[in-house]
Amino acid sequence: MKIDYVELPATDLAAMKAFYGAAFAWTFEDWGPEYMAFSNSGLEGGFRRTDAPPPRGGALVILYAEDLEAAEKAVTEAGGEITERHEFPGGRRFHFADPSGNELAVWTKA
């Protein structure tokens, strides 16, 4: 089996749409006031409305970018918070928190 869909919690769907649209050019389809699907991300997924921010330290969704510096700039300009930076054999990555507190990462090859 393979991963087919990723679903993330969101405390504010409009803020998530603004952030991911600006930072990564994702597109969205609203499915009522509690759910929004995203596409143009490499893997289909969605944001489900929740009242509480997600706990940190769970599964980590990692995005790929050819230009890591441009990706980091796009994340911060869209309102994301950079939480970590790492270098490792074969590449580099940074982690960020989105407007709902989800932690994701972006990496690039060395």
Characterise this structure.
- With 110 residues, the protein is α/β, with parallel strands linked by helices.
- The chain has one domain (6-51, 59-109): 2,3-Dihydroxybiphenyl 1,2-Dioxygenase, domain 1.
- 20% of the residues lie in helices and 41% in strands.
- Strands 1-4-3-2 form a four-stranded mixed beta sheet, with helices on one face. A four-stranded mixed beta sheet has the order 5-8-7-6, covered by helices on one side.
- β6 and β7 form a beta hairpin.
- The model has no long low-confidence stretch (mean pLDDT 94).
- Strand order, biggest sheet? 1-4-3-2
CATH hierarchy class name: Alpha Beta
How many distinct folded domains?
1
The number of distinct β-strands equals: 8
Oligomeric status: single chain
Largest sheet geometry: 4 strands, mixed
Q: Which architecture name does CATH use?
A: Roll
Radius of gyration: 14 Å
Task: State the end-to-end distance.
Answer: 30 Å
Q: Helix proportion of residues, in percent? A: 10-25%
Beta-strand content: 35-45%
